[in-house]
Specification:
The structure is a single chain. This protein is α/β, with parallel strands linked by helices. The chain has 2 domains: 82 residues, no CATH class; 102 residues, Zincin-like (2-Layer Sandwich), CATH 3.30.2010. It is 41% helix and 18% strand. It has 7 helices and 7 strands. The strands form 2 sheets. It has a 4-stranded mixed sheet. The longest helix has 19 residues. The relative contact order is 0.11. The N terminus and C terminus are likely disordered. The structure holds zinc ion.
Length: 208
């Protein structure tokens, strides 16, 4: 599945590496506060950390004014990306309205409906279903283990959207990638999958 958060950090590793270089300097440009680290890099790189802070790395010789201009020129994009990152973090902190047991019961029902379509590929044995809280994915298929893991929060989404994710993961038993052939399988069994996919972005219902 595509990542739920488009702009996010690559983890704390990068921050630790930064500390081995010159100490990061706090700067601001175009109304954006950012942390500038000088590194052995070729280009100016900008990323939004999970806490919403802005980290920029730049080659040692690039003039500070050019880096400021780079950041200021992206102020609008940064504001949007920060809002998305912070909203995703807040969403991750929110307690789930559905229990793992309830989610597994729902997913099993949806899976049982899809299984007959893929029974031949699976040698007539249904896959193992797991429920997990995942930050960036709605579902994961491990064909070698005949296992589908679904995000607990998928149970809070409209049923049509959850049906799409279940079918999507089953289609990975045929094609373990997102090739055109994979999408053809999805479309064959669910012609309206694109409309269903957009429902994943809808806010969670207030009642399960
Ligand atoms: Zn996929």
């Amino acid at each position: 599945m595509p990542p739920a958060v488009p702009a996010s950090d690559k983890g704390d590793e990068a921050v630790k590496k930064t500390n081995q270089n010159d100490p990061a300097a706090q700067r601001s440009a175009g109304g954006v506060c950012y942390e500038l680290a000088r590194k052995r890099v070729k280009n100016i790189n900008l990323r939004i950390r999970r806490d919403g802070s802005v980290a920029v790395s730049a080659p040692r010789r690039t003039p500070a004014a050019r880096i400021d201009a780079f950041v200021a020129g992206r102020a609008e994009w940064i504001a949007k990306a920060r809002a998305q990152v912070l909203a995703a973090e807040a969403e991750a902190q929110r307690p789930c309205a559905v229990s793992c047991e309830e989610a597994l019961a729902l997913f099993t029902e949806l899976s049982d409906a899809v299984f007959p379509l893929f029974a031949r590929v699976l040698d007539g044995r249904p896959p193992v279903l797991k429920v997990r809280q995942m930050k960036t994915r709605w579902g994961v298929c491990a064909p070698a283990r005949r296992q589908i893991t679904l995000n607990l929060r998928l149970a809070e989404k409209p049923r049509a959207a959850a049906e799409y994710v279940v079918l999507h993961e089953y289609a990975h038993f045929v094609h373990p990638n997102h090739s055109p052939a994979f999408w053809a399988v999805v479309a064959r069994y669910m012609p309206d999958y694109k409309a269903r996919r957009t429902l994943l972005k809808a806010p969670a219902p207030t009642k399960p």
